[in-house]
Amino acid sequence: MIRENLKRVQERIAAAARLTGRDPRGVRLIGVTKGVSIERIREAMAAGIREIGENRVQEAQEKRPALGKELRWHLIGRLQRNKAKQAIELFDVVHSVDSPELIEALERQIMLRQACLPARQAQHERRLELLIQVNISGEATKGGCRPEEAETLAEAILKTKHLRWTGLMTMAPYSENPEDSRHFFRWLREIKDRLEERFGDDEGHDGRGLDLSMGMSGDFEVAVQEGATMVRIGTAIFGEKR
After folding, report:
1. In terms of Cα–Cα distance, which of 157, 84, 92, 96 is closest to 126?
2. Residue pair 136/187 in contact by the 8 Å Cβ criterion
3. Cβ neighbours of residue 206 closer than 8 Å, sequence gap 6 or more
4. Is 169:95 a contact under the CB 8 Å cutoff?
5. How far apart are alpha carbons 98 and 109 in whole angstroms?
6. Block means of pLDDT (10 residues each) for the chain, length 242 residues?
């Protein structure tokens, strides 16, 4: 079932991309595995999933040792500063950066970790990739900075030595109609365009353009049409939580 679901999702992503003249290869599929068992994640890996998104540090701590090094791990849920130490060990990408204090905590923890490594090994340590979460809808229940704060957070990341700013993330308000999300996704893309103009050639994203992490099972096709480079899909692949 997972293999068939994944194939359908991939086909829908490709169709949505082609509708706006995009190359489907420019859209990365992040399989959201909150509440999904290790066995079912292995099924998804066998079907071709290579990147997964977890909402909680604790759940990733339980799963990562059992799943080996084949996967690229994304933290897509809120990150508390007191979990920064665990997060830098578990994740390749954090999508939910929303404050200068969190940026400082992540940078500090990486510096502390590297101080314990041999100099040669520390020199080759990867930089943690960060996306700034923008609360486009203004909903109190959602994390993220205000749209006008995104530039300040970008500047804060770009001043660090161990963090790499690679894009923006948002969540649209829940709706039965995917078209209701279009306005929010378009707004995030416009913010991205402004920030690329402001920071375009900075090494923080290697001049290749910022990622847009937006779109979930109910609205990912609209997100792709509006420029998403990452979509976060759980239910459409793994089914409803059991």
Report:
1. 92
2. yes
3. none
4. yes
5. 17
6. 97 98 97 97 97 97 92 97 96 98 97 80 76 95 95 97 96 96 98 92 59 98 98 95 62
Would you say 139 and 173 are in contact if contact means Cβ atoms under 8 Å apart? yes
Separation CA 7–CA 87 (nearest Å): 31
234 by Cβ neighbours in 10 Å (0-12 / 13-18 / 19+) ranks as buried
pLDDT score for 52: 98
What's the whole-model pTM score?
Answer: 0.93
Q: How long a stretch of residues is the chain?
A: 242
Nearest 10 degrees: Cα torsion 154, 160, 163, 167: 10
Take residue 23 and report the two structure tokens written for it. Answer: 């190359």
DSSP 78-142: ---GGGHHHHHHH-SEEEEE--HHHHHHHHHHHHHHHHTS-HHHHHTPPPEEEEEEB-TT--TTS
Element (H, E) at 185: helix 182-199
Residue 205, pLDDT score: 47
